[in-house]
Amino acid sequence: MDTNKILSLQLVCILTLTSLGFSQPAWVKNAIQEANNIKVHSDADAVVLHDVAVIEISNKATAKTSSQIAYKILTEDGERFGTTRIPISSFLKIKTLKGWVIKDDGSSKSLSKKNIITVSPKEIAGYYDDSQLVIATLPEVEPGVIVAFERTTEEQGWTSLYQSFVFQIQQPVRFTQFSIIIPEKWQLIKAGWNVDNVQFEQQNNRYIWTAADLPYQPEEPLAPSWYYLSQRISVSCFNPERAEPDHFADWTSVADRVISIFHQPSKPNSGVIVESNRITEGLTTFEEKIETIATFLQDEIRDVLVEIGKGRWHPRIAAATLFNRYGDCKDKTTLMCAMLKAVGIKSVPVLANVHYPVDPRLPTPFQFNHCIIGIPIQNEPLSLQMQHAIVGNWLLFDPTDRSIPIGQLPWSLQGNRVLLATNVDTVLLRLPYPDPKDFRCVYRAKAKLTSDGSISANITITDFGGRAANSRYKHRNTSKKKQIEYWRTNMSQTIPGVELSNHQTKETSDSVWISFAIEGSSYIQKTGDFLLLRPDLFHAPEPPELTADERQHPIWLGHPEEIETNIIWQLPGQWIIEMDSTTVQYTCDSAEIHSTMSLSENMLNFKSVYRQNGKFMLPEQYESARKFSKSLSFVRKQTILMRNN
């Protein structure tokens, strides 16, 4: 019998035993009473009436979780809360699952087996995984009803010693509580995010976090993701009296565990040795060898995410990945470690997170979701091309990102912490944000405007540093026809009906540039006797993004980058141009804009430099951020007045 059929039978049994023939429990009835008196923000889709989870950890590393959650549905978009999704696997089982929908008239319906489906991650995300996702959807969910779910699960093994709970993401919350009970004499390490209004208490070996009346969190432009803004807690527990390899008291113990997991798989066998020597034959320098092996991993080994059994955490042996010609991040890192070892170069696996910050207060491997490689450089001479990926004495490289060559780091890793699988004292390494100049783009144009308002221009766009790495990959893997169409579409945002010709690309050691010519017939706008020219033909005019009087969330303008724009306009000699030389300059904590515009006879010069450094701005800095937003908008939409003499 296949796995899906077994899981379906298990769920039928669960529902038959627990969901039929009983009324709502007391906690659901209390939530219904709470809903009668609650007032919420007009933009809310639902209100969380009750969200409680209790986790009990046993000495045998088993976690039993009891969860209760109830919502008052307010809008059609809020109907999504009538569905719950529960992951299950060989180590995580559902013991009971119940659900109810309660209507305004007091009538109710319970969750039944026909309301439940089981799917695999491959069906949803396209990767191989032996876990499953149980999706339970209550019937007849609509605005005005109350939905509630109750479940118990059991998790076995080392994963159970790390647990997380989210108190609020966006919707208002009436009451929420998270409790974890650990064995006597065990220790618990905790880390919270945005939990200033969450109350904490400890009762012997029980830890409790409680919050109530959390207001709606509004959508705001240029805000960080909801993951950054959510209120949540993560905990890790361990037995200090036993030297268990999966009990993590500090980051060194986490590193030791990673070392043990990768040690055997990264040993090169004869096949790995032969292939490593073949592709590095004739190469003599440290840099040539690591660059060749890195390119081999990117070009020859496909990225395929396979999460089956121990493969969820343990890499496959290097020889198998080389033979199969595919693997996930830890498989490719393991193979690269083996190939480097085969040519006499040391390296270690490095755990990373590409989605959210790693908190140094909480030593656990479960804060990471990606694996890269670290190469100790010691006194090895390296070219300037490698410097952007060197932190301390380590050269870091992501073999799964085909667009980023060795010597550069992907955006997703910059500014975060990574864990080195090594016995050195400092195993948790902070990666710096790059300087904006490391991600620089220069737009240049020589444009000519004729008396009938048509435009022609020769354009060059040059990317440097990290931007050049991305552009180089796109140019090599995108047809010329698609590249031309991309830029025609891009320039059409500012020049209606633009035609593009003479498209060319060129690469140098530190830059990538494209050039093309454009023509358009209707760039000039008319208003009465005047003609309007917008000097910046690269960036579409946009209103300020920050216009509200107040701000609740931090402001994030984006990753570090620098964008320089230089345009020389040749205007018809008989036109009268009414303008003074202008300068716009404004700086806030996260970015700066500097723009100049000057006229000499019939030649108009426009230049702007925009920089952002990747920093968050706090809500109390909102006024400064708002002024910056207005300045940037002004630069991109400013116009000059002209008239035909």
Which helices and strands appear, and what pairs or packs with what?
Blueprint: H1 3-18, H2 26-35, E1 46-57, E2 62-73, E3 83-88, E4 92-102, E5 108-110, E6 116-119, H3 121-125, E7 128-129, E8 132-137, E9 146-156, E10 162-168, E11 173-181, E12 187-193, E13 199-203, E14 206-214, H4 226-229, E15 231-238, H5 251-263, H6 270-279, H7 286-300, E16 302-303, E17 306-307, H8 318-324, E18 326-327, H9 329-342, E19 348-352, E20 370-376, E21 390-391, E22 394-397, E23 417-420, E24 428-430, E25 440-449, E26 455-464, H10 465-477, H11 480-492, E27 499-507, E28 511-520, E29 525-527, E30 530-533, E31 555-556, E32 561-570, E33 575-578, E34 582-587, E35 591-600, E36 603-612, E37 616-617, H12 622-637, E38 640-644
Parallel strand pairs: 1-11, 7-17, 16-18, 25-32
Antiparallel strand pairs: 1-2, 2-9, 3-8, 4-5, 4-9, 6-8, 10-15, 11-14, 12-15, 13-14, 19-20, 19-23, 20-22, 21-22, 23-24, 25-26, 26-28, 27-28, 29-30, 30-38, 31-37, 32-36, 33-38, 34-35, 35-36
Helix pairs in contact: 6-9, 7-9, 8-9
List keywords for this structure.
3 domains, 37% strand, Immunoglobulin-like, 645 residues, 21% helix, 8-stranded mixed β-sheet, globular, alpha+beta, Jelly Rolls, C8orf32 fold
Structure overview:
- It is built from twelve helices and 38 strands.
- The protein is α+β, with helices and mostly antiparallel strands.
- It folds into three domains: 236 residues, Immunoglobulin-like; 182 residues, C8orf32 fold (Roll); 208 residues, Jelly Rolls (Sandwich).
- The strands form nine sheets. Strands 5-4-9-2-1-11-14-13 form an eight-stranded mixed sheet. Strands 27-28-26-25-32-36-35-34 form an eight-stranded mixed sheet.
- The chain is globular.
- The termini are far apart.
- The N terminus is likely disordered.
